[in-house]
């Protein structure tokens, strides 16, 4: 079909966006929801185990970051090929990203075994917390290959607009793990280590399901270094962008730990709720990645712009909704995770920031999806670096030097979100991201 013919077709409607976004919402929310359950289970073991999960979970977020790179990069490439009418080429992107996932997963396991102690000691302000965090991390790292395989599988399936099977794979694995976690921690008596084993089970089962689906979808399973190199080239800007995120959140945890065990415990609760909200809001962005990539791959610039407008509005509305829920739960939610009143006091410092930033974050995440789907990764890289180097990092280290506590740490996050809000809205309005073609 010619580009002109595609442009004459009706634009993608809100119904189609919802058909892609709602299953993606469950997939995105499943992992952080499990982490929230895990945090609640571990939190009742005491302050040190809760702080240990905060520290080790922050280190494990590096693997999640690599997974997001694979999922987002694969979605954009697969969606453009799917939009151009070549489904086989879209699936082939998933084959090559899965080879990359396996190789990287094994490497990260080896690094975790060697570096767990030094990393957790550098982040934790307490030796007991560092030791407990290192033990958790060494066990949990064995789930990384499964986590990365699931990310690669999500990427190509989103690209071909298949959101039903990822929903079943991810939700099923995390429900299993949510059942295992309290059983292994308490009745079995493994304590903090039981939490790590439950993580490994969920990630391995999920990754295995995606691998089986890929094998059934194509007979061409050989690694192709040229395609992997192209994916790595595209992933370079996502990698730099992701590094900025990791530097920010690792630094925030390190600074929060310097304010005491109660402060880092409260920071862990708020940060995991933030990640949960962010990934849930990202469901609209996932739909945007798939639909924008397919529209541009098929030569439909008007359709891509219409999707961008719709998802921006939806992201803002969803952000307001999450803010209302967070405000309503201010006096209740921290108690779900720990009975410690000192942690509750610190959580009360964070909560106004958490609520106030959510509407802005909803718009930012939606527009991130538009620009990733369009392949406008270089722009996202540059603005994220600017927001990190000029906003988040100076603010949180200033909070440490001036002893401003968790309020100062979360003010840094606020500056980070607001800089990205202004710059992504400007890019959306400029239209410079809408480049046509099966590749960019």
Radius of gyration: 21 Å
Q: Based on CA inertia axes, which overall geometry fits?
A: globular
Low-pLDDT segments: 1-10
Alpha plus pi helix count: 15
User: Main β-sheet: number of strands, strand sense, barrel status?
Assistant: none
Structural class: mainly alpha
DSSP strand count: 0
What's the structural domain tally? 1
Helix coverage percent? over 70%
H/E element sequence: HHHHHHHHHHHHHHH
Taken as a percent bin, the fraction of beta residues is under 5%
| pLDDT averaged over residues | 86
Termini separation comes to: 19 Å
What features would you highlight for this structure?
mainly alpha, disordered N terminus, transport, transmembrane helix
């Amino acid at each position: 079909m010619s580009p002109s013919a595609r442009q004459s077709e009706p634009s993608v409607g809100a119904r189609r966006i919802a058909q892609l976004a709602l299953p993606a919402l469950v997939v995105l929310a499943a992992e952080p929801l499990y982490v929230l359950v895990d945090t609640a289970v571990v939190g009742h073991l005491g302050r040190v185990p809760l702080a240990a999960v905060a520290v080790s979970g922050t280190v494990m977020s590096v693997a999640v970051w690599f997974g997001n790179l694979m999922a987002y990069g694969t979605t954009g490439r697969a969606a453009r090929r799917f939009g151009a009418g070549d489904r086989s080429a879209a699936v082939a992107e998933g084959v090559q990203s899965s080879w990359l996932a396996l190789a990287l997963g094994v490497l990260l396991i080896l690094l975790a075994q060697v570096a767990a102690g030094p990393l957790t000691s550098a982040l934790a302000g307490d030796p007991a917390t560092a030791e407990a965090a290192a033990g958790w991390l060494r066990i949990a790292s064995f789930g990384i290959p499964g986590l990365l395989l699931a990310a690669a599988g999500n990427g190509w399936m989103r690209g071909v607009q298949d959101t039903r099977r990822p929903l079943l794979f991810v939700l099923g694995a995390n429900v299993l793990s949510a059942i295992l976690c309290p059983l292994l921690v308490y009745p079995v008596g493994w304590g903090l280590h039981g939490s790590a084993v439950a993580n490994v089970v969920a990630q391995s089962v999920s990754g295995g399901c995606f691998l089986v689906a890929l094998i059934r979808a194509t007979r061409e399973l050989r690694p192709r270094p040229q395609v992997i190199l192209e994916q790595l080239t595209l992933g370079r800007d996502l990698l730099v962008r992701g590094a900025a995120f990791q530097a920010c959140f690792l630094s925030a945890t390190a600074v929060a730990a310097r304010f005491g065990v109660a402060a880092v415990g409260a920071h862990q609760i708020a940060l995991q709720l933030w990640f949960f909200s962010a990934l849930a809001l990202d469901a609209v962005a996932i739909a945007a990645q798939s639909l924008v990539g397919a529209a541009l791959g098929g030569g439909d610039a008007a359709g891509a712009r219409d999707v961008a407008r719709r998802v921006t509005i939806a992201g803002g509305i969803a952000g307001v909704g999450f803010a209302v829920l967070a405000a309503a739960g201010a006096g209740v939610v921290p108690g779900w995770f720990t009975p410690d009143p000192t942690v509750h006091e610190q959580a009360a410092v964070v909560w106004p920031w958490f609520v106030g930033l959510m509407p802005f974050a909803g718009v930012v995440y939606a527009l991130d999806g538009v620009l990733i789907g369009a392949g406008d990764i270089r722009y996202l890289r540059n603005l994220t670096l600017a927001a990190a180097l000029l906003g988040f990092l100076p603010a949180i280290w200033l909070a440490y030097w001036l002893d401003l506590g968790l309020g100062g740490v979360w003010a840094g996050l606020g500056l980070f979100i607001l800089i990205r809000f202004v710059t992504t809205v400007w890019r959306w309005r400029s239209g410079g991201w809408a480049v046509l073609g099966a590749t960019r």
